[in-house]
Amino acid sequence: MLKRLFSFLLVGGFGAVVNLVCFSCAYYALGWPVNRLLAYAIAFVIATEVSILVNFMLNDRFTFRQLHDRVRAWQARCMRYHVTSVGGTLVTLGLSFSLLHVLHVPALFAQAMALVVATVFNFVAHHVFTYAAG
Prior knowledge:
Blueprint: H1 2-30, H2 36-63, H3 74-101, H4 107-130
Helix pairs in contact: 1-2, 1-4, 2-3, 3-4
């Protein structure tokens, strides 16, 4: 379990960097021509989807490979990973949005802090649902 946690954190760290790069590029590219709230929403969606896909591919291949139940196809695992990640995304969105708009923390820092909290949620949820036997 400790090895799996380390792998999950390593993959998640890489996914967080991917998320932050995508978020930053999209947010600041959209910042001038679009209002801030819309730029934030678009950047959030883009960064979230790209990082979910990257995290799934790496976690499926390395972190959770021992938990595959040979019956469930790659596409089914990917779908379950996405469903599980919705909860983590909601945690990220709620915390990031609150930090940005309530506490006026800079957008990139708010996103980074929210990703750390969501990591704990995701690790547990992937064990319980995504890669659970059955």
